[in-house]
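Protein: MerR family transcriptional regulator
Species: Acrocarpospora macrocephala
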Amino acid sequence: MKQGDDGLDAVALGGLIRERRQAQRMSLSQLAERAGVSTSFVSQVERGVANPTLSSLKSLVSALGFSVGELLENAVPKTAGQQHTTADDEVAVLRAGERRRIVYPGTQIANELLSPNLQKSMEIIWVEAAPGQGSGGHPHVHEGEECGVVISGAMKFAVGSNEWVLNPRDAIYFPSTRPHSWESVGDEDLVAIWVITPPTF
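Structure follows.
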């Protein structure tokens, strides 16, 4: 996949973070301290002149009391046919090419939301990542449980001190409270499906 393909640009992302911070009457330095980053970095992200890694983006939104999914959910336009629901709104069909898609600024990582929204008990994500791309930085820890399966490409996945390479049709299940990280490895783009409960991404 190409960097920046169909993605939210850095200026739009920075504007969203600034809006969330200001709504909480939080200063740049307060957000920086809570997120474990420098004040100048927060300022650069908000102005769209710095692209946060996925790891630092998660730190920023966590410090604001939100998840990446919640922050970006309203930033990516829905297409007219994104969801087709039954009369009782309990069944949702999300067509390929019509789902909410996020490409993180400055990366070659894309997520598509396969669950209708983040208010359900499960969050299901279609993951695409170019070789060498991944969660970056420090391992993530949060509440819940996760399960993922590789569709194509290969993924190096670490939980605690253990590390595996997952190939097509390989799956992994683990408690999200264990430190975990991942990276797309090999010569082709990684495609995987990821399930998180409760939605915390």
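Remarks: The chain has two domains: 10-73, 84-197.
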